[in-house]
Amino acid sequence: MQLSGLGYFGLRTRRVNEWRTFAEDVLGLSAQTTEDGLRLRADDRAWRIALHESDSEEFGYVGWEVPGPAELAAAAEELARAGVDVSHADDRTLRERDVLGLFHIEDPNGVRVEIFHGARTATTPFVSPTGARFVTGEQGLGHVVFSVDDYAATLLFYTELLGFRLSDFCDLGRKRIAFLHTNPRHHSLAFAGLVIEPERKPRKDVEPGELFHFMLEADTLDTVGYAYDRCQAGAAPLALTIGRHSNDRMLSFYAVTPSGFEVEYGYGAITVEDPWTATRVDGTSLWGHHRPARAAAPAGQEGTKA
Fold it and tell me: Could you list the residue ranges that cross the membrane (predicted)?
């Protein structure tokens, strides 16, 4: 199976109005009202992020793109042969996602994974409220990072069943993060889990399927700097100060979203070209990415379990 990249994701939230302000004023995305919330644009696609009005703060689904209908059918058949429960979308879901074809499966952590083709390109140009432009195209939307319960099973699921390729690993004491790619972006998916000897029982210190953060990559460093200034001025709480990652060399900062998880806003990541040899680093950053001394947490901060 060959995925093209991260196409979209959806969130359930009680804070649709706060998300509109955050998306437009902090991130520079454009927002459009829908029947049950908002859709956010970052490029020429009709939408990239969906916010669904809800009574909770939860991650809803993630959409991975394939080139066309033949690849979608082949992917569904391949997964079914491997014993994966494949559910094909009805007409309503196709209209909601605005795609031509889609099926969904569930990963080992309960994350709803949608495989799709035929996303709609908008007929009007993307116009950012802040003048931002984002690196998308052949690299997809950006990346998402989750916590996982069974690290080994999750790694097997995404690499053996969905065809993700390893970029590198990061060790953080008892935890390990795997970074995976599907296109030239260094990683479109990462997940963190406890690396534990078989005879030991894992501690339930994280919720499987909880979203740590998503990432948007701007096309200029100044765009990141302006957004950083807006957060320092109070537009959104800073989660991590500006720093540079040790693996993809992204220069970025992290802000707290209205749902309580984080968004990484960065510039200048390296790209990968297969064949690629995965290596391992200790620690996620070369410098920076420090917790602010007086980081403000939004009221009612919750995790985002799928």
Answer: none
